[in-house]
Amino acid sequence: MASKFTELAFDCADPHALARFWCAVLDYEVKAEEQEEGFVAIGPPGDAGAGPVPPMLTFALVPEGKTVKDRVHVDVNPTDREQGEEVRRLLDLGARHVDVGQGDQSWVVLADPEGNEFCVLSTRRP
Where are the beta strands (DSSP E) in the chain? Predict the structure, then answer.
């Protein structure tokens, strides 16, 4: 049996704010929260049930800030709107455009409120 991808962990300055941002991006909800530890976990709404389950995202408070381009990043696909509309929605949520040297591509590179890069892909997938 192989391992299963279950979580993607973010170190951050404000776990609660970053969790709120990613909940709005992915239509996730808070699954676990430890105020004193500075930790929040988010995942798909409802019970996991049968079938593939998307990974949870976890956010942990750390004292140091982000200093370099991420070596791993999230890609998102708009499912009910076009790419441009989704990019505008994400910018309204607090994302910002970033240039990581991608050049002219079909995806749009954004950063979340703490500077973590992610891509908005151009093709819609269910």
Answer: 7-12, 29-34, 39-43, 56-61, 74-76, 96-97, 108-111, 117-120
Span 76-97, pLDDT tens digits: 999 889 999 999 999 999 999 9
Beta bridge partners of 96: 111
Judge if 7-63 and 73-126 fold alike in CATH terms. no
Q: Break the chain into its structural domains and give their ranges.
A: 7-63, 73-126
Q: Per residue in 24-38, pLDDT tens?
A: 999 999 999 987 789
Q: What is the pTM of this model?
A: 0.89
* Angle at CA of residue 41, ends 35 and 45, nearest 5°: 125
Q: Give φ, ψ of 125 to 5 degrees.
A: -130, 140
The yes/no answer on whether domain 73-126 falls in CATH 1.10.3470 is no
Crossing angle for the helix pair 15-26 and 83-93, to the nearest 10 degrees:
160
